[in-house]
Amino acid sequence: MSEPVDEGTAGWNPEDRPGKQEYFALLALAARARADCLGRRVGAIVVRDDRVLSTGYNGTPIGMPNCSEGGCHRCAHRDQEEYSAGRGYDLCICVHAEQNSLLAAARFGQSTLGATLYTTMRPCFGCVKESLQAGIVAIHYLSEWVPFGAEQDPALASQYANLRSRFVEFSHLTLARNRLFRMLSTMGEEVPR
After folding, report:
1. What are the tens digits of pLDDT across the range 20-77?
2. Cα–Cα distance between 24 and 45 in angstroms, integer?
3. From CA 182, how far away is CA 32, in angstroms rounded?
4. Which contacts of 175-183 are long-range, i.e. CB under 8 A and separated by 24 or more positions?
5. Residue 94 and residue 76: Cα distance in Å, rounded?
6. How far is CA 65 from the centre of its chain?
7. H or E stretch including 183?
8. 121 Cβ contact list (under 8 Å, min separation 6)
9. What sign does the CA torsion over 8, 11, 12, 14 have?
C-alpha cells in the first residue's frame, strides 16, 4: 500500500521556499490582483518586524464606483490627449497602493514607524513623501517607474533623489522568474508579466 500524497507538498522543492524579501514581494503582487485602475495595477504591503501590518492596492476611495465601473473620470477617458500618460492627475480620484497600505495601517491602529514598504512599482513623488512622513524606513519595489517629465526637469529629479536618500534602504527587487514560475505552477497559477 502506498503512502497518501499530501496535495500541499506534491511537486514542492524546499529550495523553492522564498526568502523574506521575495515572500513580501509576492504578497504585494497578490494585493495587486485587487487593483481596479485601468492604467497601472499596483499592490503594496507594509511590514514591521517581519509581520505584515497592512496591504493596499490602487483604486477609487471606499464606497465609490471602481474605475472599471466609471468611478474615475481620468480612467474613463484615458484615450483622450489630456489624460495620456503623466497628465490629468488632478482629476484622478484613485488612491495609490502605497497610500492605501499606509492609510489601512492608520485606520486599524498599526504604527508604521520603523516599517518597510514593499510595492510592485517604484513609488511616485507623493507616495515617497507620505512614506517618509509615516515613518517608513525602507522601500523595496519590483517594477521601475520614471516620473513623467523628470528627464526634462532637473529640480524634480533632484528632489526625488533627495527624498530617496532619506530611507535606510530604497531598492529595486528582482524575482527569479524561473523560481516564481515553479512556485506558481505548483499552485496552478500563471506567472505575471
Report:
1. 999 999 999 999 999 998 888 999 999 999 999 999 999 999 999 998 898 887 877 7
2. 8
3. 20
4. 175/22, 175/25, 175/26, 175/142, 179/16, 179/18, 179/22, 180/26, 182/13, 182/16, 183/16, 183/18, 183/26
5. 12
6. 21
7. helix 177-185
8. 40, 42, 97, 141, 142, 143, 144, 145
9. positive
Q: Which sequence positions are flagged as catalytic?
A: 98
What is the Cα–Cα distance from 38 to 76, expressed in whole angstroms? Answer: 8
- In sequence order, what E strands does the chain have? 43-48, 51-57, 116-121, 138-143, 169-172
Q: What is the pLDDT of residue 6?
A: 56
Q: What is the pLDDT of residues 79-137, one digit of tens each?
A: 877 766 666 666 788 899 999 999 999 999 999 999 999 999 999 989 999 999 999 99
Model confidence, pTM: 0.85
| Per-residue cell: 38 | 485601468
Q: What is the rounded CA–CA span in Å between residue 144 and residue 193?
A: 14
The one-letter amino acid at 67: C
Q: Measure the CA–CA gap between 25 and 84, rounded to whole angstroms.
A: 29
